[in-house]
Design a protein that fits this description.
It is a single chain. By secondary structure, the protein is mainly alpha-helical. The chain is built from 13 helices and no strands. Helix 8 runs antiparallel to helix 9.
């Protein structure tokens, strides 16, 4: 009895099924992670609301209404025509908020990311190498923490007010926001550098920079993310403080500049609650999301915190 050749599956079909299976597995793991870490999920959801408001809003609202000299009547309360009213110069508040939100997020992300990069670099070097390097960097960190950062920022911003840009403001904020990340990362590296897998990598002849980036950093990623969120909160608050004082990039629409102009035109005294209330609502949603996410990241990095809570 002759049996015909067995049909073999095409290699392309096998590759496609493997890709689909890996994609499903990744989605399942992501779903399980966010379901288990509900605080991170809730926090990211609140932050995404603000991000979507700023980046998707221009598809639904004409941002030309946020320009000075628009044809809208000034000082109008919220209505069906202008959902969030207008300011003292006739700018539509909804359009102005949508135009300002992305730049406020951008300066916070730039300052937060740069601050964490500086702090993490200092923490990894000090914690891993130890000795006089650790002593020197720890002393620099302690001195920097003793400096009143906001006061120095105000002085520096006042000196460069005319040429202030978002990038320059983010850089100045980052110079005074890296110390917390440096101390956290240093403490973790001190406890990890004597572990067995680090000793094996060192005995194998791996260089210190390789061990830091490929052995220590992946294990400290939860701490780095938590440090970034904390730095992001501080950076946005610092930027809003400078802008409210009129020391930010006044030629760029940001949420802090909106608060500056409402203070300039005495919106509170004039009863124009929608002018100062609208950006505050955005800040509440944003900071609530970041704060809840930071708590979730801390619990992810240190499971004992979740067990206590």
């Amino acid at each position: 009895m002759t049996v015909g050749p067995t049909a073999q599956p095409a290699s392309g079909a096998t590759g496609d099924s493997t890709s689909v299976a890996s994609g499903v597995g990744l989605a399942t793991r992501a779903y399980g992670f966010f379901r288990y870490n509900m605080k991170i999920t809730i926090g990211l959801f609140l932050v995404l609301i603000v991000v979507a408001f700023g980046y998707l809003g221009p598809f639904f609202v004409d941002l030309e209404k946020a320009e000075v000299g628009s044809v809208l009547p000034p000082g109008q309360a919220p209505s069906a025509e202008n959902w969030l009213g207008t300011d003292a110069q006739g700018r539509d508040m909804l359009a102005w908020l949508i135009d300002a939100t992305p730049d406020s997020l951008r300066v916070g992300v730039m300052a937060g990311a740069l601050g964490v990069m500086i702090g993490a670099s200092v923490g990894f070097i000090a914690g891993y190498y130890g000795g006089w390097i650790d002593t020197f960097l720890r002393t620099i960190t302690d001195i920097a923490m003793a400096i009143p950062g906001l006061l120095v920022l105000i002085v520096l911003a006042s000196l460069r007010q005319e040429g202030m840009t978002l990038e320059l403001m983010a850089f100045l904020i980052a110079l005074f926001s890296w110390m917390g990340a440096a101390r956290v990362i240093r403490a973790q590296v001190l406890s990890m550098r004597e572990r067995q897998y680090v000793e094996i990598a060192r005995m194998s002849g791996e260089k210190g920079i390789y061990i830091v980036f490929f052995e220590l950093m992946p294990n400290l990623m939860p701490f780095l993310l938590a440090a970034f969120v904390g730095s992001l909160i501080g950076a946005i608050l610092a930027a809003v403080g400078l802008e409210f004082l009129g020391l930010g990039a006044t030629n760029i629409s940001t949420l802090g500049n909106i608060l500056y102009w409402q203070n300039f035109y005495n919106a509170v005294i004039r009863g124009m609650w929608w002018w100062w209330g609208s950006p505050i609502v955005i800040f509440i949603i944003l900071f609530a999301g970041l704060f809840i996410a930071s708590i979730g990241l801390d619990e992810w990095a240190n499971p004992r915190l979740k067990e206590r809570s």
